[in-house]
Amino acid sequence: MGAAVADAAHAATRFRPFRVVSRTPESRTITSFALEPLDPADWRAFEPGQYLPIRIPGADGQAAALRTYSISSAPSETARYRITVKREGAPVPGLPDGIGSCFLHDRVEVGHLLEIAPPRGEFVLARDTQRPVILASGGVGLTPLVSMLHALTSEPEREVHFLHACDDGEVHALRREVDALVGSRPGLTARYCYRAPSPADAAAGLHHADGVMTKALLRSWLPLGDYDVYLCGPPPFMANVYAAFRELGVRKERIRYEFFGPATVLEAVAEDAPAARPAAPVSLTDQPIAATEASRVGLQISFSRSQRAAAWDEASDTNLLAFAERLGLDPPFSCRAGICSTCRTGLLQGEVDYVEEPLDPPAPNEVLLCCARPRGPLVLDL
């Protein structure tokens, strides 16, 4: 990589200081934070559905952690971003609280500075079609879909159905905002499903169904149509709703999704689930990927410590992490997006191309498995 390209890549990924200019409680567990750059030139446009990498300071001398949070504001709102974050406390006594969400909720106030990298992510709204849209979310997974809903209010020809599932009215975030957007033009609807509504929820008419989203419920809510479906939420929600949409006849290539949790659960929902995985990300530096699809077919990828090897399958292997998992290996990972460096692995032989420019580029003898593809035969220290 030449110096000019390296400088461009660094400029495209480096962290910048942003000030918290407001924090707004959205529900009992969810808070929104509005963020403005100290230098207005550091604000970058984003596509609805993208997220922000945020550097979380380490406690007691520990290294900083990287976390990502979806942008929930409208793409048309320039000069600031809004993230909407659920406080993830320890699931059971003895386990730690969520590092990023608890730091934001417990320690960050208006005026606080955060280090933020430019927007990233390929879970974005398709703008080159007039097909009707379903935005289906579970819990705090509604945040990127609210940003999409903002964008869709300016596309008057597109029919949009916003479907949201959560426990009850106390944890239902951004409801008033969604209702206002739905009321802004014809062709927009919203339906809410509460797993355990309170008597107050029922009395106020805050939701449209009890329990969980099922195939029968979706059939009752939605007219027949050739929809683009966007899903976001925790794994159980994603598995159930993905399967329901497939059983209702929604084509797998029409379903795009993003997990708030492990990113592999949909593979087991149906035999053809892998074809509905999110599109592969593109390089932030706009550099062409050196290896062509044809040149990668049949490449031998070897793992020295595991004594495993197999041929790269261009049709199904999206990155080296997925390839290793297909062979039954269990490399450590977290973000699956080139951000956290958890999947950093020794590169003993060969070269790779990155489909997503890493935030923290690895050393020449290392590779980030989650966003790398082979340029030729590889030997990895795994």
Structural features, described:
The protein is an alpha/beta fold and 382 residues long. It has 3 domains: 13-116, Elongation Factor Tu (Ef-tu), domain 3 (Beta Barrel), CATH 2.40.30; 133-276, Nucleotide-binding domain of ferredoxin-NADP reductase (FNR) module (Rossmann fold, 3-Layer(aba) Sandwich), CATH 3.40.50; 293-381, Roll (Ubiquitin-like (UB roll)), CATH 3.10.20. It is built from 9 helices and 19 strands. It has helices spanning 3-13, 99-107, 142-152, 175-182, 199-204, 215-221, 235-247, 293-296, 320-326; strands at residues 16-25, 30-37, 51-56, 65-70, 81-86, 113-116, 133-138, 160-166, 188-194, 209-210, 228-233, 255-259, 300-303, 308-311, 344-349, 352-354, 366-368, 372-374, 378-381. A 6-stranded antiparallel beta sheet has the order 4-3-6-1-2-5, covered by helices on one side. Strands 10-9-8-7-11-12 form a 6-stranded parallel beta sheet, with helices on both faces. Residues 1-11 and 267-295 have low confidence and may be disordered.
Write the layout of secondary structure elements.
Blueprint lengths: L2 H11 L2 E10 L4 E8 L13 E6 L8 E6 L10 E6 L12 H9 L5 E4 L16 E6 L3 H11 L7 E7 L8 H8 L5 E7 L4 H6 L4 E2 L4 H7 L6 E6 L1 H13 L7 E5 L33 H4 L3 E4 L4 E4 L8 H7 L17 E6 L2 E3 L11 E3 L3 E3 L3 E4 L1
Parallel strand pairs: 7-8, 7-11, 8-9, 9-10, 11-12, 13-19
Antiparallel strand pairs: 1-2, 1-6, 2-5, 3-4, 3-6, 13-14, 15-17, 15-19, 16-18
